[in-house]
Design goal:
alpha+beta; Arc Repressor Mutant, subunit A; 3 domains; five-stranded mixed β-sheet; three-stranded antiparallel β-sheet; 43% helix
């Protein structure tokens, strides 16, 4: 996880599968265990969206990315009638409710706010949680059957050595290009959510460690050990919100614009799970979890060959094994 910098975490089951894809022997229970053992943490760092990051990185990443995210939320706070005084009071309530190592669900934290006369109607409750997490007060904690609880960050995650802002900028840039290269500087600016000047400063500090390749008018940066794809046909079933797509501003290298609407209908920010064949998005898929099996429903953009159907079956079996259920293909 540290190597990646962070992995998108809006869809919790999908986020765990994103990690599982990159750890071939892992199963869903292993990811839950890593969360429960405080080795990885789910919170709102890059772009103020949910990610899972390594526990030792959570504080310096939040310290780096939160100022811009908080400043950019002023209009939303005004619309929700959440002024600084109210948000400070909310943090006091959370500190009291969670202090001493306690963990509480979202519903329980909302109830604590309501008991103190603070409305959580509409999106107010979510924004209060978000604001408190960006300020380093709370984070997601242990998993339950249906959701994660919340805890105080300083009680949940062990102390770790901090970084200066320049060190943090360089480190985040290095993590990004090492794990996601080939990528452009604009990709990094988008992914990190940092201001262009700061993102560029981080990039300039580490670009001597990278190789560059120009394609048309774009310059791509990558680590020297970037692997060249093999010729063997491969199929991967990605969850929605996977970094393979969301790690880049420009996704045209892997997703044909003619199919973009099928992956993110209406550009509404909700990404479908995708079928990737030889590196390119070639369809979408859905899962239906039953009591004793998981049904995998494929929707390829174009007809697939017999060899590809066989590879799809293998990919579906891998996902089913991850969640410890037999696969049924549709």
């Amino acid at each position: 996880m540290a190597w990646l910098g962070g992995i998108q975490g809006q869809d919790f089951p999908g986020a765990k599968w994103s990690i599982g894809l990159r750890l071939p022997q892992a199963v869903d229970a292993d990811i839950n265990r890593a969360l429960d053992e405080r080795r990885i943490v789910r919170t709102w760092p890059m772009r103020g969206t949910l990610h899972i990051v390594a526990a030792q990185d959570v504080r310096w990443i939040l310290a780096l990315t939160s100022p811009k995210n908080l400043a950019g939320s002023q209009r939303r706070r005004d619309a929700l009638e959440l002024d600084d005084k109210t948000l400070a009071r909310c943090r006091e309530i959370f500190a009291k409710a969670l202090g001493g190592g306690k963990q509480k669900s979202r519903v329980e934290l909302y109830a604590a706010l309501e008991d103190a006369g603070i409305s959580t109607d509409g999106q107010r409750g979510y924004h209060i949680l978000w604001n408190s997490a960006l300020r380093g007060l709370i984070c997601f904690a242990a998993t339950t059957d249906k959701e994660q609880t919340f805890a105080l960050l300083d009680e949940w995650v062990a102390p770790a050595k901090g970084k200066t802002r320049d060190e943090a900028l360089a480190e985040l840039a290095l993590r990004y290009f090492t794990s996601r290269g080939p990528a452009t500087l604009q990709d990094f600016i988008w992914w990190s959510g940092l201001g262009a000047a700061e993102a560029r400063a981080g990039f300039e500090a580490i670009k001597s460690n990278l190789l560059q390749e120009k394609v048309d008018k774009l310059t791509y940066w990558m680590p020297p050990d970037t692997a060249v794809p093999g010729e063997r046909a491969s199929i991967i079933l990605l969850p929605g919100f996977d970094e393979y797509l969301l790690g880049y501003k420009d996704r045209s290298a892997v997703l044909d614009s003619a199919h973009a609407e099928k992956v993110c209908p209406g550009g509404n920010g909700m990404f479908a799970s995708t079928i990737v064949i030889d590196g390119r998005v070639a369809g979408t898929w859905k899962r239906a979890v039953k009591k004793s099996s998981v049904e995998i429903i494929a929707s390829p953009f174009d007809p697939i060959s017999k060899t590809e159907r066989r590879a799809f079956s293998e990919a579906a079996e891998r996902y089913a094994s991850f969640i410890s259920l037999p696969a049924v293909l549709s």
